[in-house]
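User: Fold this; tokens only.

Assistant: Input:
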Amino acid sequence: MSEVAKFFAESVANIARQGADANAHARTLDWINAIAPHKYTYNFTWMGRPVIQFPQDLVAMQELIWRVRPEVVIETGVAHGGSLIFHASMLELLGGDRIVVGVDVDIRPHNRAEIEKHPMARRIHLVEGSSIDESTVARVRELMGARRPALVVLDSNHTHAHVLRELELYSPLVARGSYVIVCDTLIEDMPAGSFPNRPWDKGNNPKTAVWEFLKTNQRFVVDREIEQKLLITVAPDGWLKCVED
């Protein structure tokens, strides 16, 4: 076995041990609950724009994009556009005419202006409309054209019903070997009432939507290795790998 192969084999073993460590998982969740009131994820930017993600998740996304080499990344939920710019910068490294499609029911003018003047803007297409409207999905498909494979990130309205419908509408765009990443499944693991001004909570969130989706959809499985490697992630049970055409 080469030295490179030995390194990666050791890493796989480390991840498995870490993933089986109940104490590490419990302490990670304690830390997440402690920093949540401080809006920790709002403290980071990507190429100048607020990204509103755990840095650990960005590292995992980089690994997936390099491995999958998608022609298009589709993300529901735009906010300040940092995630779109992150995806676009990764696609820029891969080259070609790869694009990012960002979908949001309300793209605020000041955010649109900042996204459209960014150096990565040439790879980004914005679609304003509800992510679960048929007309919005049709527009996404139009922008995709013949580009394949696609990688999908769901990060908009976090209610069970909304995310489940997003999964039903966008998962068919993903081919075997690529992923749907469902953000903020972490809500189910946090104390009830952690989001008093939001319509989602424990029992009504992206993770419950994932659980229901997987009961009837055999094309996707949870990639446990990713969350076991990260521990700190907004998407436990949300890294969904497509395993069938």
